[in-house]
Amino acid sequence: MKKFGSMVLSAVLAASLAGCGASGTASASSSSASGTSSSGKVYKVAIVKQLQHASLDEIANAITSELDAIAKKEGITIDYGDVYDGQNDQSQLTTIGSQVVNDDVDCIIPIATLAAQTMAAAAQDSGTPVVFAAISDPESADLTGFDNVTGTSDALDTDRILDMMLAQNPDVKTVGLLYSTSETNSQKPIADAKAYLDKKGISYVEATGNTTDEIQTAVSNLVSQKVDAVFTPTDNVVASAELSIADTLAEAKIPHYVGADSFVRNGAFATCGVNYTDLGKKTADLAYQVMSQGFDSLTDDTIDGAEKVDNYYVIKGTIVTVNSETAEKGGFDDSSFSQFGDVTEVTTTEE
Fold first, then answer.
1. What phi-psi label fits residue 35: left (phi over 0), alpha (psi between -120 and 50 degrees) or beta?
2. 300-306 — which CB contacts under 8 Å span 24+ positions?
3. For 294, which DSSP code?
4. What is the mean pLDDT of residues 156-164?
5. Is 277 helix (H, G, I), strand (E, B) or coil?
6. Interior angle at CA 229, CA 223 and CA 232, nearest 5
7. Up-side HSE of residue 187: CA atoms within 13 Å toward CB?
8. CA dist., res. 134 & res. 116, Å (int)
9. Which DSSP symbol is given to 297?
10. Does the reported pTM lie above 0.85?
């Protein structure tokens, strides 16, 4: 077991097996062609979000929709109950992991790194299949080398996003790096960003926080230091705070480049990366293949357009998403972005 496993597993085994207390975010309790299975086959799936915010909600919704479609097509029942919300709390996730393993589910689909680590630890002894979604760096998260774990990675092309930043403003002198120190997802892309900026001779200021209030304070500090742009990877803490910081940055004429399109829909300026609806769909397809055919059936070509690395699949992303309202408010020119991928314009929503 990887180093996180012994620590998390101990917590899992010590947790009460009483009700998990997680709040559900999906109302459907099962999925089938007509409410009953023509083949009689029933699969039980537990979907576990690390916390609730736009990116993870989008992935969870895509997973449940695709499970519905699979059940209808195959004439089976896929019972996924409510989507568990771990509320970004280790003890809550540990209790959820203990419950779903003891419920003898056929597959656990955790969304985001802490949820995936906790579910992999919970499933270690039982061998319950774990198919994670949206893990930026599975290797650093110690999610490789397991016989019962696979999943999808939204590994960020940090250089591509920073290339966009310089195409939009070649005169950038200082970049704010906004992230949470508690997010494993952020470690590698922040290191990559520093290396990129060092190579370009561009200075950077790090601003961190582990709560929405701390992220708001960090943004205020970046504004006071007059940075020219801000970069944030696929950081769940910042994602949860995006709606509360987007106007501050736009009004200060500071473009916020981010790791996912859901940030942009919450007011950030731009990204280039994975479409999370597509990632969720592919994760559901992968989970069904594991349940129906086993891990031995997985090959390099199991997910079209994805690269298999170790035991997981990296989903490629070249979709540029721009918030047109933020661009107008900040006076940001996005005309150079078409060279980086297909450009989609969105407006700010709270979803």
1. left
2. 303/152, 306/152, 306/282
3. -
4. 96
5. helix
6. 95
7. 11
8. 9
9. G
10. no
